[in-house]
Amino acid sequence: MSQETQNPNRGHGNIPKSTNPYGDIKHVIAVMSGKGGVGKSSVTALLATWLKEKGYRVGILDADITGPSIPKLFGIKGKAKSREGALLPAITVKGIEVMSINLLLDKEDQPVIWRGPIISGVVKQFYEEVDWGDLDFLLVDLPPGTGDAPLTVMQFLPLDGIVVVTSPQELVGLIVRKSIHMAKTMNVPVVGFVENMSYLQCPKCGEVIELFGRSKGKQVEEETGIPFLGSLPLVPDITRLGDEGRIELVHHLYPDFFKQVAERFMEQF
């Protein structure tokens, strides 16, 4: 990866990074967005599924404590179990390991009304006290925005890189730059950014409709030097699969949908 960190074991302000005693986690990658509603969790789930199908050992740490959606995307229900003092991640149909606050609540729709420091402490526990075993990739679904919650998570977790998810609007383009600046301030390299909901293709005539304006991916790449991993269209069937907890079927039904993004992501490693 081209961008360097000052010390892989120290966060911003020389804060010690979290460690996991239960196995070897090779790459910890955070997925962030400057605002909510741009499909950050869906991109996290699709990237995890693609990596798993390529033979990698993959886990997802759902750090979006107040708005967790990873369990729903994978159709995971029930509560997390423990063994010898360690929490055990839930396992998806395809074998992806998942830990989320939803797996600790009595009801999945129970609201979590906590302040930043408590949220950050829970995320730290999800990294340090979960028996992830040996993983090639642990993807961290960060809380949206560039405020206190994602900032604190970035301080404590030993991140190897960040993927930024955005949509094509000009305002969001500015938010992307803010997210990139935040990551650089925290000494975490930005692996690249994904432009989600970039366009909609008419199922009858094939016309491409750019609902939120023209793609600005290449422009932002030229201005920031951060790799543009690719654009993802709006596909109603894929949205439906996520709502039904069957996100792992996307790559089988739409083999080219995520291919470019995933391959460009892997070029960074």
Outline the structure in words.
The chain is an alpha/beta fold and 269 residues long. It has a single domain, classed as P-loop containing nucleotide triphosphate hydrolases (Rossmann fold, 3-Layer(aba) Sandwich). It has 9 helices and 12 strands. It has helices at residues 40-53, 70-74, 116-128, 148-156, 170-185, 217-224, 236-243, 250-253, 259-266, and strands at 25-32, 58-62, 81-83, 86-88, 90-91, 97-99, 135-141, 161-166, 190-195, 200-201, 208-209, 228-231. It has an 8-stranded mixed beta sheet, sandwiched between helices. It has a two-stranded antiparallel ribbon with strand order 3-4. The chain has a two-stranded antiparallel ribbon with strand order 10-11. α3 runs parallel beside α4 (148-156). The protein is globular, with a radius of gyration of 18 Å.
